[in-house]
Amino acid sequence: MRMAVFSTQEFERQSFDEANARFNQELIYFGENLHRATAPLAAECPAICAFVNDKLDGPTLSALAAGGTRLVALRSAGYNHVDLASAEKLKMTVMRVPAYSPQAVAEHAVALMLTLNRNIHRAYNRVREGNFDLCGLVGFDMAGKTVGIVGTGKIGAALARIMKGFDCRLVGYDTYKNPDCLALGMKYSDLPSLLAESDIVSLHCPLTPETTHLINDKSISLMKRGSMLINTARGALIDTRAVIDALKTRDRLWYLGIDVYEEEGPLFFTDLSSTIIQDDVFARLTTFPNVVVTGHQGFLTREALAQIAEITLGNVSDFETGRQKSENVVRPGH
Known about the structure:
Layout: E1 2-5, H1 10-23, E2 26-29, E3 47-50, H2 58-66, E4 71-74, H3 84-89, E5 93-95, H4 102-118, H5 120-128, E6 146-150, H6 154-165, E7 169-173, H7 179-183, E8 187-188, H8 191-197, E9 200-203, H9 217-221, E10 227-231, H10 240-249, E11 253-258, H11 280-285, E12 291-293, H12 302-321, E13 329-330
Parallel strand pairs: 1-2, 1-3, 3-4, 4-5, 6-7, 6-9, 7-8, 9-10, 10-11, 11-12
Antiparallel strand pairs: 5-13
C-alpha cells in the first residue's frame, strides 16, 4: 500500500526501511509536519503515517480523505491529536501502536529523576570548565523514598519494577489496579493522597479532557514539600505556568523533569539553536537549575524504534487484509 509518512527523522527512516523488508509497503517520506496545508502531499496515498505533533483535525482529515486516504496509521500510543469523530464521519480508520518498549520511556523517566537528584547536568557542565567544586550538588538517597505513579499501564508498571529495585515505596493512581503493580507491593490511592505522600511523582497517563492540567495550582498545593515531578507522557498534563510559580516559591515543588511540553509543537524535533525561541514560558523553564528538559526522546531507543516500525507496518498490512487487531484501532470514546 502506498503510504505517506510525515514528520520523519533520519533514524525513523532507517527503522522503517529495515522493517519494510518484510512488509513491502510503498513508503514515501516527508520531513514536513502534517496539517491542512501539507495534506495534499498525500494525494493518491490510501494510507498516511503520523507522529505526535502532526495536526489531524477535521480540516486536515477532510483534505486527506479527498485525496484518497482511508487509513491513518499513528506511530505512537497517544491519539489526542486526532479528531476521531471527524475520522469516523469520513469513514477513515485510525490505528495506533498501543505499546512499544515500555521500558524505554520508564528508563528515561528514571534518568530524569537521577539527573535532578544528583545534579548530573550541573556537575557535567562544571567539570567541562575545570570546576570540581561540590557545593550545591547534594542529592538524596532514592532508597526508602515514596514514588507516586499516575497511570499504571505498561509504562507505569515498567517504572514500578525499576523503582522497586531502588527499594522505593510505591503508590499508584489509576482507574484500574494493575495486578503486576499490586504484586510489587504498590498501594493504590486517590490522587490527592498520592501527591501528599510522594517524594517523586511520575506521570504516565493519557491526555484526555479529564487529565488536561491534572497538575495545576490546586494539585501542586497538595504535594509533599521538596517533591519532584516527572512527566514523560503528554505535556498538557501539566499547567506549565502553575509549575513555574511553584518552582519560584520553592514551597512544595523542588524539582521538575519533563520530556514533553504542552506547547512543544513548534519547538521539538527541530534544530532551533541558531534562532530566538519565541515561547517565553518555555524560555523561563530553562532558567531554573532544578529543571531538566529533554525534547520528547523518551521513546528513542533502537528497540523501541524497531517495534514502532514493525507494529505500524503490521497495522497497514492488517488494514489491507481486513484483519485489524481491535486493540490497535482507535474510535471515538476509546
